[in-house]
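I'll show one example:
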Amino acid sequence: MNKVKITSCYLFNNLNDNELKSAISFFDCKEETYKKGELIASPDKLPKKFGLVLSGCVQIYTLDIDGYQMIMATVLPGETFGESLSYLKKEAPIFIHALSDTVVMWMSTEKLREQKIVTECDKKLSYRFTSLLANRALSMNDRIQILSKLTIREKLIAFFTEAVRKYNAYSFTLPFDRSDMATYLGCDRSSLSRELSKMQKEGLITFTKNSFTVHKKADILMNFQ
């Protein structure tokens, strides 16, 4: 199982060896391995720490009043999840499961909560954690923008805009299948597939399964500039 280095995460990026050792101690880092499909957390058993995905893929979802899944996030290697819940020690009606064989590094926020900020490295880590939370808020705003669109075409344009910015490329592979994509966008799977086919015929996108290329054309172009 190939793992990314923890330095691929913003919290640990560009730290020297001594700072990295200090950071691992500061966050009390512990690795756990999960099998594909394994439930990592549920509303009655939420983790006390937040996670950094080192390999594999994690999906976070909740259930609506009819029991249908509502995907909140899909977390890839180098990305984190659960920071706010860990820091605030809040309960939440969420489920977390492994989409593939996955390694998660769990990290504690106790020193941050107790304001045990002593060294310059501690200050740096505290600042980075705060920045991480701020970026998470911006990311949630992007999701709201997608869900607020009225038509599937508008949702897809907003979604692809976010994807291009996230991957910094016009070609990318999404970490979920068509069914999960429909759930994430809040629309019907069949209607989504029809709209994707229309966009491909119009030359706006090309795709094979979950690999997409967005083309710089007409009404979609202005959304990426």
About this structure: The longest strand covers residues 69-75. The mean pLDDT is 87. The chain has eight helices and eleven strands.
